[in-house]
UniProtKB/TrEMBL annotation, chain B:
Keywords: Cell membrane, Membrane, Transmembrane, Transmembrane helix, Transport. Its main location: membrane. This is ABC transporter permease. It comes from the Bacteria. Belongs to the binding-protein-dependent transport system permease family. Signal peptide: none annotated. The chain crosses the membrane at residues 12-35, 78-99, 111-131, 143-167, 188-209, 260-277. GO terms for biological process: transmembrane transport. GO terms for cellular component: plasma membrane. It is found in: Cell membrane. PROSITE patterns: ABC_TM1. SUPFAM superfamilies: MetI-like. Pfam families: BPD_transp_1.
Length: 311, 292
């Protein structure tokens, strides 16, 4: 971790008591964050046992009866919960794929622009949707994409059939993936732009002298230099395999597209609203465990292949 | 020189045109909603508005501000954004400083790292959270908007990495003079960390302003909702049964130009702070997130 740190006098040596005397201020500074984390993140964790109970709110966790794995058996025997997991995977995997490729291409194209003013303006505009919530964008999309909306007016102007973007299953998925891409591609490009600006210009000069055109320079200098950060972003995004974005889907979904658009998080919330607390928790726990494995694996691979450490 | 190559020149022109088009597409829907919000009722309802308001009218905004539900929701949103951002930044900076020390200097560091890593990758889920909030009597309390979100591990990491990127020579002189950790943090690290703090403040502020789910989940009465939750029911769900909105207001609220005005008002604070903080955040994120 600190291989480059030269040995020097530090206050942390000696017995535990002496160490604490030297660093108690640091512990104190961490105290607020630790307390909040203990109360609001750690304290609810034992609550996941209700996934193994037939939980009745008026009986509480201690009073409800234990049912073992039957909630989980229920999940995997119900047709709609299997469909929900499948929907989640399809939507999130497509989002991950497009969400990686498009920002890289965008960063490469933007990197070619030499007029700084133009480059800044483009950046300012494409980052903006990232800061809008899915409530706002949901409201806008419902308006734009309705049958009488401006997009369908445009289609009919070109003599095309109107499209039911939000009320036909496959179009719904298409809309969800495209609108997510629209909202996030600019912002995701930031890290790629940063890695582009870090490439040593001497490499390009050398390639120039060897007679490489811009295409060759991109292929043999730019892309290989970006590869580590692409690997990091990809491996970290694997943790989102079961996260298809509750905010977005919940604000766009309707009963017509439940079969193709319902995802784990919206399913959990609906079961919660219907009072199926144990089922809801069991689905949530299933998601958390898989997510834990994916994120853990993602961080491990990012560390291994790209030497990326989070802390 | 590839710049002078004719093929590259053609590509360059197309590239500029393409990128300009892409950036216009990113803001076009927002401009459209703005135009609708400034249009007359009939023009808006019959979808005649493109990017320029038709029969200009401020009616949408006037109707919105006549509505008391909307005003109280606006007040709650402003309050939670201000209080929530300030407190969250205090907690974040305080936690990031000790974690930015190396583990020889601060022996407990590894323990704390694991402590925060665990909550970053494992979450108890909806129902256990709800049960906890009920137990500690936070349902229907304003503080439920603030307290659970005070610790954002990702923000702590960004801040910590920013601190780490600062040259360590900075604090050595201060240590010689006998400065405490608090003094080093507040007098030396904070003043030079403005980009990172501005970035994280923007993210936290936007997060609070946009948050709607906690309002819906934890507030049983709609008069405690923040703006985003109210907007969600009016604009997205279009269900007025729970909102406590009077029947007379219902006609006007479902009006397209009024809805657009509400959407625009909800976007406005972000549009206002964004240009000022925007120049910071690229620097802030990059220093925090990318390290080789």
């Amino acid at each position: 971790m600190a291989a480059n740190a030269a040995p020097k006098a530090n206050p942390g040596t000696g017995t535990t008591a002496r160490q604490f005397a030297a660093t108690w201020r640091l512990h104190l500074m961490l105290l607020p964050a630790v307390l909040v984390a203990l109360i609001f993140k750690y304290a609810p964790m034992p609550g996941i046992v209700i996934a193994f109970q037939d939980f009745k709110p008026w009986q509480g966790i201690s009073g409800s009866s234990w049912v073992g794995w039957s909630n989980f058996e229920l999940i995997f025997s119900m047709h709609d919960s299997r469909q929900v997991i499948l929907n989640t995977l399809i939507i999130s995997c497509l989002k991950i794929a497009f969400g990686l490729v498009v920002p890289v291409i965008f960063a490469l194209l933007l990197n070619e622009i030499r007029q700084m003013g133009l480059k800044r303006s483009v950046q300012t505009l494409v980052y903006l949707p990232h800061f809008m919530s899915w409530v706002i964008l949901g409201g806008i999309l419902l308006d734009l994409l309705s049958l009488e909306g401006i997009v369908n007016q445009l289609l009919s102007f070109f003599h095309m059939q109107p499209v039911m973007f939000l009320s036909e299953g496959n179009w719904f998925r298409f809309t969800v993936i495209l609108s997510d891409l629209w909202k996030e591609f600019g912002f995701s490009a930031i890290v790629f732009l940063a890695s582009l600006s870090g490439i040593n210009p001497a490499l390009y000069e050398a390639a120039e002298i060897d007679g490489a055109g811009r295409m060759k320079q991109t292929l043999y200098i730019t892309l290989p230099s970006m590869l580590p950060i692409i690997v990091v972003v990809f491996t970290l995004s694997l943790g989102n395999m079961l996260n298809a974005n509750f905010d977005q889907i919940y604000n766009l979904i309707n009963s017509l597209v439940l079969d193709k658009g319902d995802i784990i998080d919206t399913y959990v919330y609906r079961s919660f609203q219907e009072g199926q607390y144990s089922l809801s928790t069991a689905v949530g726990l299933f998601k958390s465990v898989i997510g834990f494995i994916m994120i853990g694996g993602g961080y491990y691979s990012a560390y291994k292949w790209a030497n990326y450490r989070i802390f | 020189m590839y710049h002078k190559n004719p093929t590259y020149r053609v590509f360059y022109l197309f590239n500029i045109a393409f990128l300009v088009l892409i950036s216009v597409v990113c803001v076009l829907p927002l401009l459209h909603i703005f135009a609708v919000s400034l249009s007359g009722k009939s023009a808006a309802d019959s979808n005649l508005v493109g990017l320029i308001p038709v029969d200009f009218s401020l009616d949408g905004y006037l109707r919105t501000f006549e509505n008391s539900n909307f005003l109280s929701a606006l007040r709650i949103s402003v309050l939670r954004s201000a209080v929530g951002t300030v407190l969250a930044m205090c907690v974040t900076v305080l936690a990031a400083f000790p974690l930015s020390r190396n583990s020889r200097e601060f022996r407990g560091r590894n323990f704390y790292v694991w402590f925060f890593l665990i909550i970053m990758i494992f979450d108890a889920g909806l129902v256990p959270h709800y049960i906890l909030m009920e137990k500690i009597n936070l349902i229907n309390s304003f503080w439920i908007f603030i307290l659970p979100g005070l610790v954002n591990v990702w923000n702590i990491i960004l801040m910590m990495n920013f601190f780490r990127a600062l040259p360590r020579d900075l604090d050595e002189a201060a240590i010689m003079d006998g400065a405490t950790s608090f003094q080093i943090m507040s007098r030396i690290y904070l003043p030079v960390s403005l980009p990172a703090i501005a970035t994280l403040s923007l993210f936290t502020l936007v997060g609070h302003w946009n948050a709607w789910f906690d309002g819906m989940l934890y507030m049983t009465s709609p008069d405690r909702w923040p703006l985003a939750t109210l907007l969600q029911t009016i604009v997205v769900v279009q269900d007025f049964s729970k909102t406590g909105i009077r029947f007379e207001d219902l006609q006007t609220l479902s009006n397209r130009s009024v809805k657009s005005a509400q959407i625009f008002i909800a976007m406005l604070p972000i549009l206002l702070v964004y240009p000022f903080l925007q120049r910071f955040f690229v620097k802030g994120i990059v220093l925090g997130a990318v390290k080789e």
